[in-house]
């Protein structure tokens, strides 16, 4: 057993899929962060691992994919044998699988923060809220004395969230501080529960809340993704799908591929209802960018180039990944409809 096997890593039972996806984050002091970038990038590129990893003095954050063997080797490099030593031990790690590569290239980036809040007084390495396991989350959020807050941005909340959760209506995580100042009061809101996609934003948000005088702050361990993985759909309090930052766009219960797509002009996630809107034109526009003609022109030209590439029998760069994801999504919808009709009969 390797040292990293004790971290929060769950292998979904889908070994036949060619790509393994690894989402990882850890708040840990990395004062030597600049010297870590090159060996990490070289290790990933040598094994054809693709995605993005962010390094900062406060830790690591990112999502990558590759062959199952390559991702297992990366886990060993990060948690055991590489230049990080044991500093990333106990990292929050989630595995899933895909039929097509979710990412097109490999990037290792150095940033001041692994999740940007711009609150110097916040240090998740020193102070965070109380972790709540997914199995215990329903009981907590159903209490009348708990204020439930979604710490994600508006476009993420729009395709799925927990029932009765407050939506901060933010476009970036930096705006979360203003939401707290205007809408929450430590004297009134004695118990606050928060959630996000994978848990990282909540670690920083809970640290910030505690620095502002809030007494009891809870956050969902492993985020929505862990909740959707382990909580049965029949017991779920999550409505809709969870936005993810790759060509899958969204996932549902069991981390299965969702039905959301991206507007290729403005990159806003679109639900099935959004795609029925009068301003939706596939590959060109949607209701969220209806007034932005510049984006429409650029998207229309891109769509034209993609169509030409198809006619010539060549895939436009990046198009194959999106097409494969869309094809898988369409097949899933068709299977669901066939099952519904069979059960109806």
From TrEMBL:
Classification via InterPro entries: Rhodanese-like_dom, Rhodanese-like_dom_sf, TrhO, TRHO_N
UniProt key word Ligase: no
EC number: 1.14.-.-
Domain named Rhodanese: residues: 142-236
One annotated GO biological process: tRNA modification
SUPFAM superfamilies in alphabetical order: Rhodanese/Cell cycle control phosphatase
Entry GO MF terms: oxidoreductase activity, acting on paired donors, with incorporation or reduction of molecular oxygen; transferase activity
Classification via Pfam families: Rhodanese, UPF0176_N
Region feature (Disordered): 307-345
Ranges of biased composition (kind: Basic and acidic residues): 324-338
Function: Catalyzes oxygen-dependent 5-hydroxyuridine (ho5U) modification at position 34 in tRNAs.
Family recorded in the similarity comment: Belongs to the TrhO family.
This protein's name: tRNA uridine(34) hydroxylase
Gene: trhO
